[in-house]
Design a protein that fits this description.
Layout (H helix, E strand, L loop, with lengths): L15 E5 L4 H17 L4 E6 L3 H7 L5 E4 L11 H23 L3 E4 L5 H11 L2 E6 L6 H6 L5 E4 L13 E3 L21 E5 L6 H13 L1 H6 L1 E5 L5 H11 L4 E3 L5 H7 L2 E4 L3 H10 L3 E3 L9 H11 L3 E3 L7 H13 L1 H13 L5 H12 L4
Parallel strand pairs: 1-2, 1-4, 2-3, 4-5, 5-6, 6-7, 8-9, 8-11, 9-10, 11-12, 12-13
Helix pairs in contact: 1-2, 1-14, 3-4, 6-8, 6-12, 10-13
Protein backbone atom coordinates (compact mmCIF):
# COMPACT_ATOMS: atom_id res chain seq x y z
CA UNK A 1 0.00 0.00 0.00
CA UNK A 2 1.13 3.54 -0.70
CA UNK A 3 -0.46 6.96 -0.93
CA UNK A 4 0.92 8.56 -4.10
CA UNK A 5 -1.68 11.36 -3.88
CA UNK A 6 0.60 12.81 -1.18
CA UNK A 7 3.20 13.52 -3.86
CA UNK A 8 3.56 16.79 -5.67
CA UNK A 9 2.15 16.70 -9.20
CA UNK A 10 4.95 18.85 -10.52
CA UNK A 11 7.38 16.81 -12.60
CA UNK A 12 10.97 17.27 -13.61
CA UNK A 13 13.17 15.83 -16.32
CA UNK A 14 16.09 15.64 -13.91
CA UNK A 15 16.58 12.35 -12.06
CA UNK A 16 16.34 12.92 -8.29
CA UNK A 17 17.83 10.48 -5.77
CA UNK A 18 17.59 10.75 -1.98
CA UNK A 19 20.02 8.75 0.17
CA UNK A 20 19.37 8.23 3.88
CA UNK A 21 22.80 7.87 5.45
CA UNK A 22 24.13 9.42 8.60
CA UNK A 23 26.03 9.04 11.83
CA UNK A 24 29.14 7.05 10.91
CA UNK A 25 31.59 6.66 8.08
CA UNK A 26 30.26 3.13 7.60
CA UNK A 27 26.97 4.58 6.40
CA UNK A 28 28.31 7.70 4.73
CA UNK A 29 31.14 6.43 2.54
CA UNK A 30 29.11 3.77 0.64
CA UNK A 31 26.38 6.38 0.21
CA UNK A 32 28.88 8.89 -1.14
CA UNK A 33 30.20 6.26 -3.56
CA UNK A 34 26.69 5.72 -4.91
CA UNK A 35 26.01 9.44 -5.20
CA UNK A 36 29.21 9.98 -7.18
CA UNK A 37 28.38 7.07 -9.50
CA UNK A 38 24.84 8.35 -10.17
CA UNK A 39 26.36 11.73 -11.02
CA UNK A 40 29.10 10.13 -13.17
CA UNK A 41 26.54 8.22 -15.24
CA UNK A 42 24.29 11.27 -15.56
CA UNK A 43 25.78 14.64 -14.52
CA UNK A 44 22.26 16.11 -14.29
CA UNK A 45 21.22 13.74 -11.49
CA UNK A 46 20.15 15.56 -8.33
CA UNK A 47 21.31 13.81 -5.15
CA UNK A 48 20.14 14.70 -1.65
CA UNK A 49 21.66 13.19 1.49
CA UNK A 50 19.53 12.88 4.62
CA UNK A 51 21.47 12.56 7.85
CA UNK A 52 21.34 13.39 11.53
CA UNK A 53 23.27 16.66 11.53
CA UNK A 54 26.38 15.21 13.16
CA UNK A 55 29.73 16.91 12.62
CA UNK A 56 31.16 13.85 10.87
CA UNK A 57 28.58 14.26 8.12
CA UNK A 58 29.85 17.79 7.51
CA UNK A 59 33.46 16.56 7.48
CA UNK A 60 32.72 13.89 4.87
CA UNK A 61 30.06 15.61 2.77
CA UNK A 62 30.83 19.28 3.38
CA UNK A 63 33.00 19.73 0.29
CA UNK A 64 30.69 17.79 -2.03
CA UNK A 65 28.22 19.33 -4.44
CA UNK A 66 25.31 17.34 -3.01
CA UNK A 67 22.41 18.73 -0.99
CA UNK A 68 22.54 17.66 2.68
CA UNK A 69 19.43 17.63 4.89
CA UNK A 70 18.95 16.39 8.44
CA UNK A 71 16.09 14.86 10.43
CA UNK A 72 15.36 15.06 14.14
CA UNK A 73 15.78 11.36 14.94
CA UNK A 74 17.70 9.22 17.39
CA UNK A 75 18.46 5.53 17.83
CA UNK A 76 16.15 3.15 19.67
CA UNK A 77 18.25 0.03 20.21
CA UNK A 78 19.63 -0.47 23.72
CA UNK A 79 18.42 2.86 25.09
CA UNK A 80 15.94 1.56 27.68
CA UNK A 81 13.46 4.27 28.65
CA UNK A 82 14.90 6.63 26.06
CA UNK A 83 13.53 4.29 23.39
CA UNK A 84 10.04 5.62 24.13
CA UNK A 85 11.14 9.18 23.38
CA UNK A 86 12.88 8.01 20.20
CA UNK A 87 9.74 6.22 19.00
CA UNK A 88 7.62 9.26 19.87
CA UNK A 89 9.73 11.33 17.48
CA UNK A 90 9.22 8.92 14.59
CA UNK A 91 5.86 10.24 13.28
CA UNK A 92 7.25 13.78 13.25
CA UNK A 93 10.38 12.58 11.44
CA UNK A 94 8.25 10.79 8.85
CA UNK A 95 6.33 14.02 8.30
CA UNK A 96 9.61 15.91 7.88
CA UNK A 97 10.78 13.27 5.42
CA UNK A 98 7.57 13.49 3.37
CA UNK A 99 7.99 17.24 3.00
CA UNK A 100 11.66 16.85 2.13
CA UNK A 101 10.98 14.14 -0.50
CA UNK A 102 8.30 16.26 -2.12
CA UNK A 103 10.62 19.27 -2.11
CA UNK A 104 13.36 17.18 -3.75
CA UNK A 105 10.85 15.62 -6.20
CA UNK A 106 12.49 12.31 -5.37
CA UNK A 107 12.19 9.39 -7.78
CA UNK A 108 14.32 6.98 -5.75
CA UNK A 109 15.16 6.58 -2.06
CA UNK A 110 18.16 4.56 -0.89
CA UNK A 111 18.38 3.51 2.77
CA UNK A 112 21.81 2.50 4.03
CA UNK A 113 20.76 1.42 7.53
CA UNK A 114 20.99 3.24 10.83
CA UNK A 115 18.24 5.16 12.53
CA UNK A 116 17.86 7.86 9.86
CA UNK A 117 16.68 5.30 7.28
CA UNK A 118 13.26 4.28 8.70
CA UNK A 119 11.48 7.66 8.50
CA UNK A 120 12.82 8.34 5.00
CA UNK A 121 12.02 4.88 3.60
CA UNK A 122 8.57 4.86 5.23
CA UNK A 123 7.89 8.31 3.77
CA UNK A 124 8.93 7.04 0.33
CA UNK A 125 6.60 4.06 0.73
CA UNK A 126 3.70 6.36 1.62
CA UNK A 127 4.46 8.52 -1.41
CA UNK A 128 4.87 5.60 -3.81
CA UNK A 129 8.52 6.46 -4.53
CA UNK A 130 10.89 3.65 -5.58
CA UNK A 131 13.02 2.49 -2.64
CA UNK A 132 15.99 0.19 -2.09
CA UNK A 133 18.24 -0.81 0.81
CA UNK A 134 22.00 -1.22 0.98
CA UNK A 135 23.17 -3.62 3.73
CA UNK A 136 26.96 -3.99 3.92
CA UNK A 137 27.18 -6.06 7.13
CA UNK A 138 27.26 -9.82 7.62
CA UNK A 139 24.67 -9.36 10.39
CA UNK A 140 22.04 -6.95 9.05
CA UNK A 141 20.92 -4.07 11.23
CA UNK A 142 17.46 -3.85 12.76
CA UNK A 143 16.43 -0.89 10.60
CA UNK A 144 17.06 -2.69 7.32
CA UNK A 145 15.41 -5.90 8.53
CA UNK A 146 12.27 -4.03 9.55
CA UNK A 147 12.18 -2.01 6.33
CA UNK A 148 12.73 -4.96 3.98
CA UNK A 149 9.00 -5.63 3.31
CA UNK A 150 8.60 -2.03 2.09
CA UNK A 151 11.36 -1.91 -0.53
CA UNK A 152 11.89 -3.13 -4.08
CA UNK A 153 15.56 -4.22 -3.90
CA UNK A 154 18.05 -5.13 -1.17
CA UNK A 155 21.76 -4.98 -2.01
CA UNK A 156 24.04 -7.11 0.19
CA UNK A 157 27.79 -7.37 0.69
CA UNK A 158 27.87 -10.76 2.46
CA UNK A 159 26.31 -13.98 1.15
CA UNK A 160 25.38 -15.01 4.69
CA UNK A 161 23.09 -12.00 5.14
CA UNK A 162 20.60 -13.43 2.62
CA UNK A 163 18.78 -15.44 5.29
CA UNK A 164 17.39 -12.24 6.84
CA UNK A 165 15.58 -10.89 3.78
CA UNK A 166 12.99 -11.89 1.14
CA UNK A 167 15.01 -13.81 -1.43
CA UNK A 168 13.32 -12.32 -4.50
CA UNK A 169 14.52 -8.82 -3.56
CA UNK A 170 18.16 -9.72 -2.86
CA UNK A 171 21.21 -8.87 -4.94
CA UNK A 172 24.62 -9.81 -3.49
CA UNK A 173 26.96 -7.21 -4.95
CA UNK A 174 29.57 -6.24 -2.34
CA UNK A 175 30.00 -2.89 -0.60
CA UNK A 176 29.83 0.26 -2.76
CA UNK A 177 33.25 1.94 -2.91
CA UNK A 178 34.41 5.35 -4.08
CA UNK A 179 36.09 5.43 -7.49
CA UNK A 180 39.54 6.01 -5.98
CA UNK A 181 39.38 2.45 -4.64
CA UNK A 182 38.44 1.04 -8.04
CA UNK A 183 41.75 1.84 -9.68
CA UNK A 184 44.40 -0.83 -10.21
CA UNK A 185 45.31 -2.08 -6.72
CA UNK A 186 48.85 -1.43 -5.49
CA UNK A 187 51.44 -4.18 -5.16
CA UNK A 188 50.77 -6.58 -2.32
CA UNK A 189 53.00 -6.12 0.75
CA UNK A 190 56.06 -8.34 1.07
CA UNK A 191 56.99 -7.44 4.64
CA UNK A 192 55.86 -5.09 7.42
CA UNK A 193 57.40 -1.70 6.74
CA UNK A 194 54.41 0.58 7.34
CA UNK A 195 51.60 0.00 9.85
CA UNK A 196 48.33 1.92 9.70
CA UNK A 197 46.26 2.05 12.90
CA UNK A 198 42.66 3.16 12.51
CA UNK A 199 39.76 2.98 14.95
CA UNK A 200 37.11 3.89 12.40
CA UNK A 201 36.00 7.35 11.32
CA UNK A 202 35.61 8.45 14.95
CA UNK A 203 38.63 6.70 16.44
CA UNK A 204 38.74 4.10 19.24
CA UNK A 205 40.15 4.70 22.72
CA UNK A 206 40.91 0.99 23.34
CA UNK A 207 42.95 0.68 20.15
CA UNK A 208 44.75 3.94 20.89
CA UNK A 209 45.73 2.73 24.37
CA UNK A 210 46.95 -0.62 23.06
CA UNK A 211 49.05 1.01 20.34
CA UNK A 212 50.72 3.37 22.81
CA UNK A 213 51.60 0.30 24.89
CA UNK A 214 53.00 -1.44 21.79
CA UNK A 215 55.33 1.46 21.10
CA UNK A 216 56.36 1.55 24.74
CA UNK A 217 57.10 -2.18 24.97
CA UNK A 218 58.24 -3.42 21.54
CA UNK A 219 61.66 -2.23 20.52
CA UNK A 220 61.57 -3.97 17.12
CA UNK A 221 58.31 -2.26 16.15
CA UNK A 222 59.43 1.06 17.56
CA UNK A 223 62.71 1.01 15.63
CA UNK A 224 61.81 -0.68 12.33
CA UNK A 225 58.15 0.05 11.53
CA UNK A 226 56.77 3.34 10.22
CA UNK A 227 53.45 3.91 12.04
CA UNK A 228 50.52 6.04 10.86
CA UNK A 229 47.92 6.37 13.62
CA UNK A 230 44.45 7.83 13.09
CA UNK A 231 43.17 8.56 16.59
CA UNK A 232 39.80 10.25 16.21
CA UNK A 233 39.40 13.91 17.12
CA UNK A 234 38.64 13.44 20.82
CA UNK A 235 41.81 11.46 21.54
CA UNK A 236 44.21 13.18 19.15
CA UNK A 237 46.06 15.51 21.53
CA UNK A 238 46.35 12.90 24.29
CA UNK A 239 47.78 10.23 21.95
CA UNK A 240 50.14 12.69 20.29
CA UNK A 241 51.46 13.71 23.72
CA UNK A 242 51.88 10.07 24.77
CA UNK A 243 54.09 9.35 21.76
CA UNK A 244 56.04 12.54 22.41
CA UNK A 245 56.64 11.44 26.01
CA UNK A 246 57.94 8.08 24.71
CA UNK A 247 60.22 9.91 22.28
CA UNK A 248 58.96 7.83 19.34
CA UNK A 249 58.21 9.00 15.83
CA UNK A 250 54.62 8.26 14.82
CA UNK A 251 52.53 10.07 12.21
CA UNK A 252 49.46 10.96 14.28
CA UNK A 253 46.31 12.35 12.64
CA UNK A 254 42.80 12.87 14.04
CA UNK A 255 41.03 11.94 10.80
CA UNK A 256 42.03 10.57 7.40
CA UNK A 257 40.26 12.25 4.50
CA UNK A 258 42.37 10.54 1.82
CA UNK A 259 42.09 6.88 2.80
CA UNK A 260 43.19 5.48 -0.60
CA UNK A 261 46.60 7.15 -0.30
CA UNK A 262 47.15 5.89 3.25
CA UNK A 263 46.11 2.33 2.44
CA UNK A 264 48.39 2.26 -0.59
CA UNK A 265 51.27 3.03 1.75
CA UNK A 266 50.32 0.55 4.49
CA UNK A 267 51.57 -3.05 4.61
CA UNK A 268 49.29 -4.12 7.45
CA UNK A 269 46.34 -2.43 9.14
CA UNK A 270 45.01 -2.49 12.69
CA UNK A 271 41.34 -1.54 12.53
CA UNK A 272 37.75 -2.00 13.59
CA UNK A 273 35.65 -4.26 11.39
CA UNK A 274 32.97 -2.03 9.98
CA UNK A 275 31.81 -3.13 6.55
CA UNK A 276 33.22 -0.09 4.76
CA UNK A 277 36.66 -0.59 6.29
CA UNK A 278 36.71 -4.25 5.27
CA UNK A 279 35.71 -3.43 1.69
CA UNK A 280 38.46 -0.82 1.44
CA UNK A 281 41.05 -3.27 2.78
CA UNK A 282 39.97 -5.84 0.19
CA UNK A 283 40.10 -3.28 -2.61
CA UNK A 284 43.83 -2.87 -2.00
CA UNK A 285 44.62 -6.37 -0.72
CA UNK A 286 45.67 -5.23 2.74
CA UNK A 287 46.01 -7.81 5.54
CA UNK A 288 44.57 -6.73 8.86
CA UNK A 289 44.45 -7.23 12.59
CA UNK A 290 40.79 -6.62 13.37
CA UNK A 291 39.45 -5.50 16.74
CA UNK A 292 35.64 -5.56 16.45
CA UNK A 293 33.73 -2.84 18.29
CA UNK A 294 32.11 -4.91 21.07
CA UNK A 295 29.04 -2.68 21.39
CA UNK A 296 28.07 -2.66 17.70
CA UNK A 297 24.39 -3.43 17.19
CA UNK A 298 23.70 -7.18 17.16
CA UNK A 299 27.44 -7.87 17.25
CA UNK A 300 27.71 -7.17 13.52
CA UNK A 301 31.37 -6.12 13.67
CA UNK A 302 32.31 -9.42 15.33
CA UNK A 303 30.50 -11.35 12.60
CA UNK A 304 32.09 -9.22 9.86
CA UNK A 305 35.55 -9.81 11.32
CA UNK A 306 35.11 -13.56 11.69
CA UNK A 307 34.04 -13.90 8.06
CA UNK A 308 37.15 -12.06 6.90
CA UNK A 309 39.32 -14.12 9.24
CA UNK A 310 37.77 -17.32 7.87
CA UNK A 311 38.71 -16.11 4.39
CA UNK A 312 42.34 -15.93 5.53
CA UNK A 313 42.65 -12.15 5.23
CA UNK A 314 42.77 -11.11 8.89
CA UNK A 315 43.60 -12.00 12.47
CA UNK A 316 40.87 -11.14 14.98
CA UNK A 317 41.70 -9.88 18.47
CA UNK A 318 38.55 -9.32 20.60
CA UNK A 319 38.65 -6.04 22.49
CA UNK A 320 38.26 -7.93 25.79
CA UNK A 321 41.63 -9.57 25.05
CA UNK A 322 43.32 -6.48 23.64
CA UNK A 323 46.51 -5.39 25.37
CA UNK A 324 49.69 -3.83 24.11
CA UNK A 325 51.48 -7.12 24.69
CA UNK A 326 48.92 -9.13 22.71
CA UNK A 327 48.88 -6.68 19.82
CA UNK A 328 52.67 -6.49 19.72
CA UNK A 329 52.89 -10.29 19.65
CA UNK A 330 50.58 -10.53 16.63
CA UNK A 331 52.45 -7.77 14.79
CA UNK A 332 55.84 -9.30 15.54
CA UNK A 333 54.59 -12.68 14.31
CA UNK A 334 53.74 -11.12 10.94
CA UNK A 335 57.09 -9.35 10.87
CA UNK A 336 58.93 -12.65 11.37
CA UNK A 337 56.75 -14.55 8.89
CA UNK A 338 56.53 -12.54 5.64
CA UNK A 339 55.09 -15.57 3.82
CA UNK A 340 52.06 -15.48 6.10
CA UNK A 341 51.68 -11.75 5.56
CA UNK A 342 51.76 -12.31 1.80
CA UNK A 343 49.16 -15.10 2.01
CA UNK A 344 46.85 -12.86 4.04
CA UNK A 345 47.29 -10.06 1.50
CA UNK A 346 46.40 -12.39 -1.37
CA UNK A 347 43.31 -13.60 0.50
CA UNK A 348 42.32 -10.00 1.17
CA UNK A 349 42.60 -9.07 -2.50
CA UNK A 350 40.52 -12.14 -3.41
CA UNK A 351 37.62 -10.52 -1.54
CA UNK A 352 37.74 -7.43 -3.77
CA UNK A 353 34.40 -6.60 -5.45
CA UNK A 354 35.19 -3.79 -7.84
CA UNK A 355 31.78 -3.59 -9.52
CA UNK A 356 29.49 -3.17 -6.49
CA UNK A 357 28.90 0.56 -6.94
CA UNK A 358 28.14 0.28 -10.64
CA UNK A 359 25.82 -2.71 -10.13
CA UNK A 360 23.74 -0.93 -7.49
CA UNK A 361 23.37 2.18 -9.64
CA UNK A 362 22.61 0.14 -12.76
CA UNK A 363 19.86 -1.83 -10.98
CA UNK A 364 18.40 1.35 -9.52
CA UNK A 365 18.25 2.99 -12.93
CA UNK A 366 16.61 -0.14 -14.36
CA UNK A 367 14.08 -0.06 -11.54
CA UNK A 368 13.14 3.45 -12.65
CA UNK A 369 13.13 2.52 -16.33
CA UNK A 370 16.28 4.54 -17.03
CA UNK A 371 19.06 3.39 -19.34
Amino acid sequence: MSFPFLRSDEGTSMMSVVIAAGGTGGHLYPALALAEEFRRQDPETAVTFVGTGKRLETMILGNSSFVVESLDVQGVLGRGGRAVAALARLPRAIGQAIRMLRRARAELVIGTGGYVSPPVVVAAWLLGIARVLVEPNAMPGLANRLLSPLVHRIFLAFEGAQTYFPRAKIRVVGTPLRRAFLEEPPALPERVKTLFVCGGSQGARAINEAMIAVMRGSRIIRETVDVIHQTGEEDYIRVQQAYHDLDVSVRVVPFVSDMPTVLREADVVVARSGAGTLAELAAYGRPAILIPFPHAAHGHQEKNAREVEAAGAAIVVPQAELTGQRLAKVLETLMRDPARLQRMAACSLARRRSDATQRVVRECRQLLGKR
